[in-house]
């Protein structure tokens, strides 16, 4: 990329006070000198534009000074009159709006919204100036395109939307070929009626708007055509401004294609104009200066072919995309049969997969005559009709050269790789080519002036696939930026230099996050799976010397499975004599990075080369003598395939000389990218009520539970409320009633609340006066055990706002709880989790936080509530920081299950003795299950049959206590029964529930007997557990 960098962009207080702009602003428009302002002088605007903007090549420092002084708000727009405003006046407004967007001002259009009278006339002027080819310089033209980019990116602003929609309405189809319009009408029959109605409304007044984008594209083509790759070379410089104009124009087209509102009718215009063909055949795209232009064109090509129905916005399936492709190639073969039946038999008789590759199409049509290729393009409705007039034919052949026609047909008919397949074959780790590419990953010095070949996170997205894909790409590049910082820091510390006698790189420095590689070897390259190109797995072993420092040794030995490291091959650009590195100077000038490859740590190897499993860290660690350690690594299979396909004489996997690790807290990027990729491969990612909100369509609050038909009118709030008065205080404006079967004075928590206003979602008829009514029903929990047990309850008296957040969190839909520190967000979240756990005990709850500390705070409060600890699992790093003696990590939970299993089996053995059952019934969970079904259940059934009343016969007092078969098992409870049959029956039921719970747990733990190693047990734990927390 060729750029012009302005120095001293940061504006200091001293610069503001000493700058001439500040003095002029104080005299004419500064808000603090409002009472002494001089009269408006329109010539002043021209002077400022010429001297402070144009002559300085729109220096950001000068523009920033004008923005600080409120030049637009205080002088330009309040005095704007379209009929009097000069070109400099309009351009000044354009530049100031661009500056607001460069500074990421969220209210950039506010000055126009407050006074919208002349905005339409001003916007029209901007459009007219953007088509000018003579008076404006390339930098001014780029500024106008930047303004248009900002405008099309602000469609949520009404005054901007009203102007931009005129440029992308169906009227722009007036420039399409009639045959092309007919093709669109055949795909969408309703479009014909819409077009006919639009034609009737067309007027000469709207001609400018419907032809604007066509004219702008033609202007761009002329600019692109004038660049032959040699312009400016004699003077020793490249035409920077013209290249920047081309880059900015492609950015504008990408924005138009990536928003459904603008793409709907413009996409046909883009294809009809052959703009992609012009870009791909341009000399600029092959030059070093055009590297960014090339990347932008590839991004435009991606969105121009995006798998979506342009009119409905529906994402196309792979089958639908394939059918469209087959239709295009079939039409091409029919054209060959019609015009060249004798000469192209091989082409039209072969199957589609044999002729639809770029190579096959280029070869076939590249050898044909110019006129013959034109006939094909005409048959495909890509060019105007050839006609019979020789003069017109010559003009058309001049307008569409042979190479241009071949490329156009190829773009139209070539086999397009599936977007999902491309993503699955894409490496997750960045390489040296991406890490140090400033077009994609800019440095901190980036000021926002230039264009970047990046996706944008707009307010609207084409499809869910588009949303996830943009996030995938942007997060990958954000991670790449952090990785570059870490690598540069490590390499500066390691101080590499070229050995004087041996052809190798030696490190004169030291870094705790990097070690020189002693030996590296690829040990396994598995064959690809069916239907895949990359190897199934690529394993390698790396040997490093971890040194003598105990803390550093421990950090390297504690590398976990799936921790990410980087293999680096580097060398210094300096000799050992001049080995002085300066971190303030550009990194690339001092150290040359030959290759960077990411890898996953599979584990550390012992002396015999066996992998030390992760679970062994919870037992006794094997002590490995010496300082040399071997790690088994998993390389990126997709990247390995790409490396092997490149025809390089030097194998980069033999050149690595440094192993670099990163801080575990910031090194989770691969897991995030893998998750996004898995979501993209999933058919349904989010519920329907959330899809439109994510894509930016419809009302923003449409995902709130009050707008959903699936809202639950009756909920168990468990221990949320401390009293009935607390319920009344929590719902101001609601009428709170107690259920008919209960007295208000006797009502105590926990409560179940019935919201009458949500009954409408269940098709229940409710009187209008009862809509704001809540019916409170107190709940009586069944006693789960005869032993004394006091459940942990919430002690926080939640405010009405917090209760509404808890209610919303328990309902279907999206809930966002926002507030400053100390407002109880964590307590609210914990209560929501607890209530969901008790309302839907068979569902899983996943908690994801931005940091380990935040998760630990949540987890510690969840532990303090009435949630069974066997349903809690803490994943990710940071579990060691939990302020609890219990271990909630994966291996800690496995150990807890195994320990609990032994205790429960002891209880089973005790129960067998109480029932006088002989045999080893407590040997395994399976034996215990048989014992429960055939002995315990039979004993309880006999007991229930004995105490059941038949024919109204009253039971003798004490019969329950005498008949209960498990009294010996509960002999540790003094005075288990009182002699009152009614009370004794409740005790007997709680005893039976206690026994049932023992065998329920053993049934859950049975799998841990079958799974013999720690890895299998932890993986089963993830599938089995109902509650999961992850950082």
From TrEMBL:
Residues 712-788 form the RNA helicase aquarius insertion domain. Residues 801-911 form the DNA2/NAM7 helicase helicase domain. Residues 21-417 form the RNA helicase aquarius N-terminal domain. GO terms for cellular component: catalytic step 2 spliceosome. One of its GO terms (molecular function) is mRNA binding. InterPro entries: Aquarius_b-barrel, Aquarius_insert, Aquarius_N, DNA2/NAM7-like, DNA2/NAM7_AAA_11, P-loop_NTPase. It comes from the Eukaryota. Residues 496-662 form the RNA helicase aquarius beta-barrel domain. It holds the Pfam family Aquarius_N_1st. This is Intron-binding protein aquarius. It comes from Caenorhabditis tropicalis.
